[in-house]
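Model it.
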Amino acid sequence: MAFMNTALLRMMTAVSGLRARFSEERGQDLLEYALLGGLIAAALVAAGVLIAYTGGVTAMADGIANCIDFDNSVGSECNPF
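Modeled.
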């Protein structure tokens, strides 16, 4: 029984120590700046990829438009990809 009490006391002390660590605000600014920097980096990468593939996406959209355009006859110009 004494062993259980000691183990429970140690576990409660560890949990209260962890709660105290997580409630501290020291270092919170650094974490926020790191998350903001990661978000900006992801947006820049996404914009770069979008700019790099704009010609391919435009060509694919034009090809699909040629395939579904009912006014023109569908022939060899229907090449969506």
